[in-house]
Design goal:
The chain is α/β, with parallel strands linked by helices. It has one domain (about 5-335): TIM Barrel. About 45% of the residues lie in helices and about 15% in strands. The protein has helices at about 5-15, 25-35, 45-55, 70-75, 85-90, 120-130, 150-170, 190-210, 235-250, 265-275, 290-300, 310-325, and strands spanning about 20-25, 65-70, 95, 100-105, 110-115, 135-140, 175-180, 215-220, 255-260, 285-290. The strands form two sheets. Strands 8-7-6-3-2-1-10-9 form an eight-stranded parallel beta sheet. A two-stranded antiparallel ribbon has the order 4-5. The two termini are about 35 Å apart.
Length: about 325
């Protein structure tokens, strides 16, 4: 993998039939996941859960890269190998989440800005030594009560572009993740308008900050109804409006769009991805960078018990296979 340049890595991450596993839950988020299966969140249980996912045989047929959390990239598997090395041995590219989370945006009630630019150049150099070949930074844009403000969109876009430029300087492929949240009762058209404005602003900033588009990936939300919206758009409407929005905003030079699942169920996220890939050829690869939508079945099968590891691995492999089929536009519900 060492001889691959950033463009090669970006393309490898969106290779046919493959997508990215987001296993970069912060300590707080992974605690919530483990709480849901009545398992205490300790360094050991977190390591055991990630090892279960990373050592699933055959998963490299469907997973091109894994986004790791700071703790995880420093951990070793039970055979003593660092997780980054274990993934590389299977032909999976290790990546790293580098942002420090969303914090309240000054002078803007209830809106958030992602922090983590301070010291990022030095952290990227260290992560590169630890084997990370790509990175991720998430900005969150909420809808509701006059939100988002253009100020919130501008501030987050600026930070995303600064992060992306520092990554490319360090020879690390940036995944740029502006997430318009599903939370709220807004309809799909409101989501469309906010997503379109956000993406236009983000690409404007990336251009200003000299980010090479061929050496990055975009990780966006789908254009979708708010979770509390009384009228939920159907699968075809989500796929059609999402793709139309991206045709208006995402330059053809970007190698791939790796959608986030954003709290959708495993099956619904898969159906949306499949529908998009059935709509024809686009200038960019349309793939996935799912967290919960790849992990939920495995987590609930595992239940924190060693006796369930084999069954949990089987559940994870099955889900990865279905998501891969959707990435190729070949999924159907009877494969569930």
């Amino acid at each position: 993998m060492d001889e691959m340049d950033m463009e090669d890595i970006a393309k490898a991450l969106v290779a046919p039939s493959k997508g990215i596993l987001a296993a970069d839950e912060s300590t707080g988020t992974i605690k919530k996941r483990l709480d849901s299966i009545n398992t205490e969140s300790t360094e050991d249980t977190r390591r055991a859960y990630r090892e279960l996912l990373f050592t699933t045989e055959g998963v490299s047929d469907y997973i091109s890269g894994v986004i790791l959390y700071d703790e995880t990239i420093r951990q070793t598997a039970s055979d003593g190998r660092p997780f980054g090395k274990l993934l590389e041995a299977q032909g999976i590219i290790p990546g790293i989440k580098v942002d420090m989370g969303a914090k309240p945006l000054a002078f803007s009630d209830g809106e958030l800005v992602t922090e983590g630019l301070d010291g990022l150049r030095e952290r990227l150099a260290e992560y590169s030594r630890l084997g990370a070949r790509f990175a991720k930074w998430r900005a969150v844009i909420g809808i509701g009560d006059g939100a988002p403000s253009q100020y919130c969109i501008d501030t987050n876009a600026h930070a995303l572009a600064r992060y992306a430029a520092l990554c490319q300087e360090a020879n690390i492929v940036p995944i740029v993740e502006p997430e318009v949240l599903m939370d709220g009762d807004h309809n799909i058209d409101e989501c469309y308008a906010v997503t379109e404005t956000t993406l236009k602003t983000v690409f404007d900033e990336l251009y200003k900050q000299r980010v090479v588009l061929e050496q990055m990936l975009l990780k966006p939300n789908m254009v979708i109804s708010g979770v509390d919206c009384p009228i939920q758009a159907d699968i075809e409407e989500v796929a059609t409006k999402t793709l139309y929005c991206f045709e208006q905003t995402v330059p053809a030079a970007v190698p791939g769009i790796v959608f986030l699942s954003g709290g959708q169920s495993e099956q619904r996220a898969t159906e949306h991805l499949n529908s998009m890939n059935q709509m024809g050829k686009f200038p960019w690869e349309i793939s996935y960078s799912f967290g919960r939508a790849l992990q939920a079945s495995a987590l609930s099968t595992w239940q924190g018990k060693e006796a369930n590891i084999a069954a949990a691995k089987a559940a994870f492999l099955h889900r990865a296979k279905l998501t891969s089929a959707a990435r190729d536009g070949e999924y159907s519900a009877d494969m569930e």
